[in-house]
Design goal:
This protein is of the alpha/beta class and 307 residues long. It has two domains: 4-114 and 239-304, FAD/NAD(P)-binding domain, CATH 3.50.50; 117-235, FAD/NAD(P)-binding domain (3-Layer(bba) Sandwich), CATH 3.50.50. 22% of the residues lie in helices and 27% in strands. It has helices spanning 13-24, 59-72, 135-138, 154-163, 183-190, 284-304; strands at residues 4-9, 29-33, 76-79, 84-87, 93-96, 101-109, 113-115, 131-132, 146-150, 169-173, 195-198, 201-208, 212-219, 225-229, 232-235, 239-241, 270-272. Strands 1, 2, 3, 4, 5, 6 and 17 form a seven-stranded mixed β-sheet that branches. Strands 8-15-9-10-11 form a five-stranded parallel β-sheet, covered by helices on one side. The longest helix is centred in the C-terminal third of the chain and has 21 residues, at 284-304. The radius of gyration is 21 Å and the shape is elongated.
Length: 307
């Protein structure tokens, strides 16, 4: 007999939504999360495009409300690291952590992504000492200083705008000649006197001794190298899916899980939702939708396999 009807691995918006649906549906539910609930959402200062909050909402607050709602319906949160997930001959999923094995009749993968690094010389030595992936977490350390934001999507531009609360100067370094962020964010960045955009450029090297001091910047069109003095760098160039614990699940070449529209994977009873799966848009709203769909079909799977 399994410990739970459904185990949800990951407590970002997709996993939390799934937990609300499964626990409210009467299924004994565990949510396994290695850190705090919310995932990348909890590290976002202001979410403006999630329905129901005309003035936006802090990501941590939104995630906390979702967790509280899931717990209200009976979901149990287990804070642990998942090492491997496999289905035993009895059709029960075994979720191994460093301290125990949790069993469930069905599993929903909601492990999200981890921020990508640039992969340039000097980068590894300054992560946590000048290089960050979270402006909300670390922006206050750069009060009155100069920072660079790498990327051109919504996340990069949103965080660059947020950093102007603290930093004296914010450079957005983007490899193209146009940002990918939505127009409203672009306009805010263009109109912010503290922000300067470095077009057609990539970071070639990170320099410093005890702390980050400068970046070698390469123009992708001319190949010219210039030096930019900064005190900090924030990287927003996408994510790598956290799917290594699921070796038997079918994935694309980048490691994202391939699912059907019902969030089913190639393994019966195993579902994947949110940013860890192949999809065209990764936003809180689409993660929530995934979580609802995955939870619904996980419940249908349990109904079909009762007994």
């Amino acid at each position: 007999m399994a410990d739970y009807d459904i185990a949800i691995i990951g407590a970002g918006p997709a996993g939390l939504t799934a937990a609300i649906y499964t626990s409210r549906g009467g299924w004994k539910t565990a949510v396994i999360e290695k850190m705090g609930a919310g995932g990348q959402c909890a590290l976002t200062d202001l979410i403006e495009n999630y329905p129901g909050f005309p003035n936006g909402i802090n990501g941590y607050e939104l995630a906390s409300r979702m967790q509280e709602q899931a717990e209200h319906f009976g979901a149990k949160f287990e804070f642990d690291t998942v090492g491997n997930v496999a289905k035993n001959p009895d059709g029960i999923f075994e979720i191994k952590t460093p301290y125990k094995t949790i069993t469930a009749r069905s599993v929903i993968i909601a492990t999200g992504v981890s921020p990508k690094k640039l992969g340039v010389p000097g980068e590894d030595g300054f992560i946590g000492r000048g290089i960050s992936f979270c402006a909300t977490c670390d922006g206050a350390f750069y009060r009155g200083k100069t920072v660079a934001v790498i990327g051109g999507g919504d996340g990069a531009v949103e965080e660059a705008i947020f950093l102007t609360r603290f930093a004296e100067k914010v450079y957005i370094i983007h490899r193209r000649d146009a940002l990918r962020a939505t127009k409203v964010l672009q306009e805010r960045a263009f109109n912010n006197p503290k922000i300067e955009i470095v077009w057609d450029s990539v970071v070639d090297k990170v320099n410093g001794k005890d702390a980050l001091q400068s970046l070698d910047i390469k123009n992708v069109k001319t190949s010219n190298i210039s030096n930019l003095e900064v005190n900090g760098m924030f990287i927003y160039i996408g994510g790598t899916p956290n799917t290594s614990a699921f070796p038997d699940v079918k994935k694309d070449d980048n490691g994202f899980i391939i699912t059907e529209s019902e969030m089913k994977t190639n393994i019966e009873g195993l579902f994947a939702v949110g940013d860890c799966r192949v999809k065209v848009l990764r936003q809180v709203s689409t993660a929530v939708g995934d979580g609802a769909v995955g939870a619904d079909f996980a419940g249908k799977y349990l109904e079909e396999t009762q007994g």
